[in-house]
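Two entries, shown back to back:
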Amino acid sequence: MSGKKLVASLAIIAVSIAAVNITPARAQTLTDGPQLARAKICMGCHQVDSRRVGPPFVAVADRYKAGGQPMVEYLANSIRHGGRGRWGAVPMPAQPQVTEEEATALAAWILSLASPAK
């Protein structure tokens, strides 16, 4: 990730933290979002800004960014329980190895990747 993208991502994370009332303890997990996504094998199907098997995280963020905390919960639930039909024919399998806390942290990080409002 380039320096400009990193700075932009950190700024978006800060705004997202304020927008969804994330505590300082959970804020640390947001900065570790890419590492958590790799550790939980999310990157096997998703990439940050390009399509793989599933949609890129930035596309997910752009679709759900306006929803605030309910969207964090919605995405966390989708991570843990899977889904189908929202992004095409390939279903997302459930990820029961991801804890509720990890799913919430991943969802908040993904939403932090949304493009700035125009």
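entry 2 starts here
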Amino acid sequence: MASQEDATTPAADPPPGHVSDLQNPPSSGDYWIGAITVLMAIMFVFVCLRFYVKRSIKRAATLDDCKTGKDFDTGRLC
């Protein structure tokens, strides 16, 4: 079993001219959170528009509406 020191030690030296920062590595997590938030907001608008149009035309919810609502509620939209 690997020790904790093996888990935090790099396997090799960095390329010439590059300095590794193992204590504070670069992350693009903030950009992903922002992109996902914006896309979820846009998706929410389109789902609401879909429900509005379906309710105004058919005046009743169908099976696909219930499934879309359930998937939207659980976060499984694909």
